[in-house]
Inverse folding.
């Protein structure tokens, strides 16, 4: 049996989230789940999902190859994703990717020889107000230029776990995949994480500084009924 | 850096973002301290149809890009049809430049959960799914926690607050595919398939998730609902314009001093927004910008005073999109920016429709050739020709979106292309430098 008893029981739990007869909805989380054990989607992983859902391996394979976060080759503990979409790319992401690629001796979607770091460039990560950003196992490191990115990667290579700008403390990619499969993060402090950065709060700060709020808010404002609406007409 | 003018400051409307300054707003305790779940209690006391009417009356329009009236969408759900109804929240934020839903879900996840429960009650759905972008791990973490807290407090589950109403919520993480932000591709993905758009009609309102009546709404749309329920439609309409009412989270990024999230009344201008964001960075002159992500045709410094609302942006030949305002300056290369965006569309095209799959593939090659100093005048005609074949000729808006940066950059900055083609600007890329999405 290539997968642990725990993975089997988690698979059952995932499938139970969706309506009876609609179990196939569990496929995306199940693919995250097999990655949590094997680090990428292997032929055994495909077979496991197919068996759990009663669909064919071809059907699973078609889905697994469609989505970027399902990896087809072994991955490292740390997935370093550099945003090279336009905004981040222009503000420094392009240079960061080139620098890290040279330092690690790997290209896009490749893993270092020692198996610790997988490098990828990625599309817009929805953090453009913090551009340029990179993520490690999908946790944000904001406003990162090439020099800071190098420092970060060296720390990872030295076995350290740098602290993300926002979000929780880093955990290895396989552990993260359990969360992606829909399970809670049971580490103490993980939810707390780092607070929002200044860009998130920029508008609020300005409003606070100038004493601006929206007038006329009455939480008891009546909700008109159909009769009220007809009377108004 | 100069202080923003009075007129610009008057545009600020901290409503959806008001809790973000409270460090514990993501917990149920923090949320309840600031009006949290008061809207749910209020909503459960009225008829579901009155809630739909209220949202219609408020004029709330979808915040995910298309601007469709939310109340009307809810009203399309057939009632007493004997089928289960579903609410699906589109939290697959990924349009380049867009970064409003992630901070909302991280800082104030309960506002989304409360909106979900109210919306489910209104459309008579007992099951909601929040399809959150896979990479958005911290947002998903806090959402899952919020659902758990809400369940423990009796706001989610069976017989909510003794009302007899049942609503369950599943937070479903995606797996890295921009196309899943398109509502029918999202539904396919949620059903466990490749995320590819469906032909419409039939629309999700009648044949959505599991071929059942389904409302698909953006995060910010749903998070607006509790405020409408509390403050009323008339209050909501005190912000924004007649046709684009309400507050809107504008995300400004790029060459400004203070990039970030600015919640303002719909209809603010870029001039005012840049003032709020502390002005342009020293040494940078505004050159081109997107009003709402890379799929909305870019504008220039001629459009500083156009209102950033649905009608105002249509009036200048673009779209409001997701109010992802990306600011580029005279030091940024518009041809290169366009090339990167097209690489993005090429990478994210689901491959279903030939014009999008092939068109983006060839546009990447052509733009690369131009940037490598090997372009020809005919290349510009070919690019525009490809755009003509893309626009309106694919199942979904991804194809239309890809035409936007190409058409608009050639419209406003043809000279920049000609400078590469005619050798006045040195090549930026060598043929070997194919770093990027491919």
């Amino acid at each position: 049996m290539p997968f642990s008893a725990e993975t089997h029981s988690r698979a059952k739990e995932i499938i139970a989230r969706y309506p009876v007869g609609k179990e196939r909805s569990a496929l995306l989380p199940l693919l995250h789940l097999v990655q949590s054990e094997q680090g990428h989607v292997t032929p055994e992983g495909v077979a496991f999902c197919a068996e759990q859902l009663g669909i064919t391996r071809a059907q699973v394979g078609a889905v697994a190859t469609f989505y970027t976060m399902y990896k087809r080759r072994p991955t490292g503990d740390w997935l370093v994703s550099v945003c090279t979409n336009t905004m981040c790319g222009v503000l420094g992401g392009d240079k960061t990717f080139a620098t890290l690629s040279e330092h690690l001796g790997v290209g896009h979607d490749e893993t270092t020889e020692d198996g610790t770091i997988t490098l990828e460039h990625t599309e817009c990560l929805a953090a453009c107000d913090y551009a340029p950003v990179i993520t490690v196992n999908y946790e944000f490191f904001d406003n990162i230029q090439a020099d800071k990115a190098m420092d970060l990667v060296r720390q990872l290579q030295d076995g350290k776990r740098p602290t993300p700008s926002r979000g929780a403390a880093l955990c290895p990619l396989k552990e993260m995949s359990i969360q992606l499969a829909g399970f809670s993060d049971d580490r103490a402090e993980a939810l707390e994480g780092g607070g929002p950065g200044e860009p998130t709060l920029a508008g609020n700060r300005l409003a606070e500084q100038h004493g601006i709020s929206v007038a006329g808010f009455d939480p008891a404002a009546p909700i008109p009924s159909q009769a009220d609406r007809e009377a108004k007409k | 850096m100069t202080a923003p003018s009075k007129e610009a400051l008057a545009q600020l409307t901290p409503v959806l973002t008001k809790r973000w300054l409270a460090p514990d707003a993501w917990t149920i305790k923090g949320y309840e301290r600031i009006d949290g779940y008061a809207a749910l209690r209020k909503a459960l006391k009225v008829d579901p149809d009155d809630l739909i009417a209220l949202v219609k009356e408020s004029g709330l329009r979808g915040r995910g890009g298309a601007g469709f009236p939310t109340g009307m969408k809810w009203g399309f759900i057939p009632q007493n049809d004997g089928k289960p109804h579903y609410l699906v929240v589109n939290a697959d934020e990924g349009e380049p430049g867009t970064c409003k839903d992630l901070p909302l879900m991280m800082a104030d996840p309960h506002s989304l959960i409360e909106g979900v429960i109210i919306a489910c009650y209104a459309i008579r759905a007992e099951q909601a799914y929040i399809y959150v972008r896979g990479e958005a791990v911290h947002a998903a973490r806090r959402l899952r926690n919020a659902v758990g807290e809400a369940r423990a407090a009796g706001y989610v589950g069976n017989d909510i607050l003794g009302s007899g109403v049942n609503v369950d919520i599943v937070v479903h993480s995606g797996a890295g595919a921009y196309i899943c932000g398109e509502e029918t591709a999202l539904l396919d993905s949620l059903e466990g398939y490749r995320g590819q758009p469906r032909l419409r009609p039939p629309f999700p309102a009648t044949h959505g998730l599991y071929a059942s009546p389904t409302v698909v709404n953006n995060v910010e749309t749903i998070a607006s609902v509790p405020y409408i329920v509390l403050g009323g439609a008339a209050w909501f309409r005190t912000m924004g314009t007649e046709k684009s009412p309400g507050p809107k989270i504008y995300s400004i990024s790029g060459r400004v001093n203070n990039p970030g999230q600015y919640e303002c009344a719909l209809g603010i201008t870029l001039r005012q927004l840049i003032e709020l964001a502390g002005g342009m960075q020293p040494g940078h002159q505004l050159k081109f910008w997107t009003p709402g992500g890379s799929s909305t045709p870019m504008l220039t410094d001629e459009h500083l005073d156009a209102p950033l609302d649905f009608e105002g942006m249509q009036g200048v030949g673009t779209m409001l999109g997701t109010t992802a305002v990306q600011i580029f300056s005279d030091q940024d290369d518009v041809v290169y920016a366009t090339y990167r965006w097209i690489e993005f569309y090429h990478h994210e095209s689901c491959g279903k429709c030939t014009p999008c799959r092939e068109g983006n593939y060839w546009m990447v090659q052509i733009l690369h050739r131009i940037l490598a100093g090997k372009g020809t005048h005919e290349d510009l005609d070919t690019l525009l020709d490809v755009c003509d074949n893309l626009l309106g000729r694919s199942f979904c808006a991804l194809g239309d979106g890809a035409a936007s940066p190409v058409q608009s950059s050639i419209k406003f900055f043809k000279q920049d292309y000609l400078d590469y083609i005619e050798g006045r600007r040195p090549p930026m890329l060598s043929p070997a430098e194919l770093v990027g999405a491919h």
